[in-house]
């Protein structure tokens, strides 16, 4: 995705010319000609880079800099000062500006510095993701539950066949992506790990995103673009929520799996990629096949190796160690001193069913760290609210203790259960369940 740059300058001629050049270099540029315009633009979307003139019609850019840095600490700010005004430049750097440019601004210099700022931000983000992924691997690599130990042992054996597809199944939030990243790590971490959420891709752009396109393949295709299959060459292409992939593209994916070859949208040249395809789903793909929503031949090809992650309620011995590890990470992320759980909180953790699995556990702890200021967390949000009802049923009671049910019925009950726990907050429930909001609404309508 291109870098978003906000250019704040009251010289409209220069700003228009600079924006044209920056857009040609791949930046998404928003223009503002005053501090008022800048605040309005920032309220709509946070940019990665800001080029800020000092002298503006309604104020001094240097005086606006602390406000900007406080609101967007990760945004790189480049200050534009008058030629020879070294004192202002030094002041800007002290107040958090990354760099400064002297007027008259040379466009080549502006582009070069903007590129450097964007590259540094991308590197910082990759390092942050790597630290997060490392934490995720640490949580995964020391499970106590026999089912998770078996899953990890299988991943280690699968790593010796680096081209074969892998299908990871399990409920939402159980850790399917973490397991896929562990496979990448066991394989030596060579090549990129490219994560694609099939449910989040607009249906009209799925083919272009996966396989790329040639110039002129469709409206606004002004240049050729590599797809994620090409980007993942030599590494792992992780297709999350594979059940959401449109039928029209399943045949093309099958061809790639069989031959390692594909064509860009609008192209005639056959290209190759040595990416290993790892897919994940919380759906019953055999039912999807029976109902005509998923190709049978693709299902068999994807499931050469199949690994199932058990839900958190079926590996109770992992809950407390996971919670303790997550608590340490979250305290560091939120800048809070280390805290512990009260005995009551530990008891709540041990008996709560966690329908949202590890993702819900993390969200519960993050919420508690923000709302509970004491030296130890109580986790009172895990207590049942009111008498048990359809929306507050313990999932174990109807999965294990109750009569057999169809998987779709269980899924609908989970949706209601989580929504009830969150007091009807739909957006938050969708996040806990790991579903896109449209998918969540569809499941809610079905219940």
From TrEMBL:
It holds the Pfam family HTH_8. The modification 4-aspartylphosphate is found at residue 53. Residues 4-118 form the Response regulatory domain. It comes from the Bacteria. Keywords: ATP-binding, DNA-binding, Nucleotide-binding, Phosphoprotein, Transcription, Transcription regulation. The keyword Nucleotide-binding applies. The keyword DNA-binding applies. Residues 141-370 form the Sigma-54 factor interaction domain. SUPFAM superfamilies: CheY-like, Homeodomain-like, P-loop containing nucleoside triphosphate hydrolases. This is Sigma-54-dependent Fis family transcriptional regulator.
């Amino acid at each position: 995705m291109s870098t978003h740059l906000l250019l704040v300058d009251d010289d409209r001629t220069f700003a228009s010319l600079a924006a044209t050049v920056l857009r040609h270099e791949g930046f998404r540029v928003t223009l503002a000609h005053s501090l008022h315009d800048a605040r309005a633009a920032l309220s709509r979307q946070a940019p990665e880079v800001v080029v800020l003139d000092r002298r503006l019609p309604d104020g001094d850019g240097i005086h606006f800099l602390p406000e900007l840095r406080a609101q967007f600490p990760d945004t790189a700010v480049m200050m534009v000062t008058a030629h020879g005004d070294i004192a202002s430049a030094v002041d800007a750097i002290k107040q958090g500006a990354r760099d400064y440019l002297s007027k008259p601004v040379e466009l080549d210099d502006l582009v070069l510095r903007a590129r450097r700022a964007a590259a540094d931000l991308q590197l910082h983000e990759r390092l942050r993701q790597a630290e997060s992924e490392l934490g995720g691997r640490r949580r995964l690599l020391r499970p106590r539950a026999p089912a998770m130990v078996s899953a990890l042992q299988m991943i280690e054996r699968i790593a010796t066949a680096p081209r074969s597809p892998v299908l990871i199944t399990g409920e939402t939030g159980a850790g399917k992506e973490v397991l896929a990243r562990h496979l990448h790590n066991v394989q030596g971490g060579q090549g990129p790990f490219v994560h694609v959420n099939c449910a989040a891709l607009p249906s009209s752009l799925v083919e272009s995103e996966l396989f790329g396109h040639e110039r002129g393949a469709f409206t606004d295709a002004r240049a050729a673009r590599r797809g994620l299959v090409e980007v993942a060459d030599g590494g792992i292409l992780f297709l999350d929520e594979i059940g959401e992939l449109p039928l029209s593209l399943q045949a093309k994916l099958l061809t790639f799996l069989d031959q390692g070859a594909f064509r860009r949208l609008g192209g005639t040249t056959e290209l190759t990629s040595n990416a290993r395809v790892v897919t994940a789903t919380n759906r019953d793909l055999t039912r999807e096949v029976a109902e005509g929503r998923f190709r049978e031949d693709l299902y068999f090809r994807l499931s050469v190796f199949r690994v199932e992650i058990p839900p958190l309620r079926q590996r109770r011995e992992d809950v407390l160690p996971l919670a303790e590890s997550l608590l340490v990470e979250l305290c560091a992320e939120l800048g809070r001193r280390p805290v512990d759980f009260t005995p009551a909180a530990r008891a709540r953790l041990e008996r709560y069913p966690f329908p949202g699995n590890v993702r819900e556990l993390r969200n519960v702890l993050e919420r508690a760290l923000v709302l509970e200021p004491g030296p130890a967390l109580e986790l009172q949000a895990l207590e049942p609210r009111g008498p048990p009802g359809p929306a507050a049923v313990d999932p174990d009671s109807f999965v294990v203790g109750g009569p057999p049910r169809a998987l779709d019925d269980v899924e609908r009950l989970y949706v209601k259960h989580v929504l009830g726990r969150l007091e009807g907050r739909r957006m938050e429930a969708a996040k806990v369940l790991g579903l896109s909001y449209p998918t969540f609404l569809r499941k809610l309508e079905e219940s």
